[in-house]
Amino acid sequence: TGEMLGFVMEKMMHEGARDVFFTPIFMKKNRPAYRITVVTDEEHMKRMEELLFINTTTIGFRYRKEKRHVLNREIVDVKLPEGVVKGKKVDFEQESYIYPEYESLKSLSEETRIPLKELYKRFQREV
Question: What CA–CA distance (Å, rounded) separates 59 from 57?
Answer without folding.
Answer: 7
